[in-house]
Amino acid sequence: MKVLLATDGSTNAVVAAKFLSQLAGKEKFDVTVFSVSFAPGYPHSSGVEPWYPEWSKRETERVAAFQEPIRAMLADVCETVSIGMSLGDPVPGILDEAERIGADLIVVGAKGHTTLHRLLLGSTSDSVATHATCSVLVVRANAKEDAPVMGVPPKLLIAYDGSDGSREAVSEQLSLNWDSKTEVSLISVAAQPYAYFDESFSAITAQLEIEVAEKIRLEGERMSGEIAQTLPNVSLQVPRVHHIGDAIATAAETNHDDLVVVGDAGHSLIGEMLLGSTTKYVLRHAPCSVWISRHHRRDE
Prior knowledge:
Blueprint: E1 2-6, H1 11-23, E2 30-37, H2 52-75, E3 80-87, H3 90-101, E4 105-109, H4 115-120, H5 123-131, E5 135-139, E6 155-159, H6 164-174, E7 183-187, E8 190-191, H7 202-228, E9 234-237, E10 240-241, H8 244-255, E11 259-263, H9 269-273, H10 277-285, E12 289-293
Parallel strand pairs: 1-2, 1-4, 2-3, 4-5, 6-7, 6-11, 7-9, 8-10, 11-12
Antiparallel strand pairs: 5-12
Helix pairs in contact: 3-5, 8-10
């Protein structure tokens, strides 16, 4: 798997690198540690300015100073680790580099762990997650500074609705060499419609909800069985709620999960520009790291 680790030397970026190092323990990852520096005068050229050579030299040294410890951290657990840097706007720079190397996954750090910070997320992380054509892992630090970035064994929450995107999200995770003791919670939400009808329709809608919930449960059980062949410690949740994203984020908080996995189903022009409402909500509100799977779009 080709991975682009975007880093700016911040605490959040270092946590993202540590998370990746734990994932890479049993994986064959080819990692590019990549940074984008915002050059003075950008987007206008500064190369002709007399101060530019000295600034460029110092900026290269500054970036190397935080990239090298990350490279060393990953060197023993990854197949290859390379270093990259560009100048300009961080988001286009990261996305362009991901396309250039054919990245399967982009890893970025989130802004913070408080409720307010989760809502803000961070413009770079948010934009990369929205516009990337490959899978994106947004790593959120634990609220406790001395806590590990991932539990032992890890705890995954995978959102599953039977769509191509969610099936491929499961497939992507099963392709990774997760520890066999990894705890997997599969959550299939039976969304309840808000009551816009009069009481004469209540009995009909209630019966329809029961039938839909049963279909969702059966499909969830089928997928749980597939997961159990690789990761036997799997359980299924089928909450019946009005808000799918809130149900996923709440389950992650209740279960103390390390990672939420959601599939991004965007195929249209709008899908390319915007994350689905559920995915966006989970990304903003989940208390842990979030993996947005676009595995099914790599062959399109």
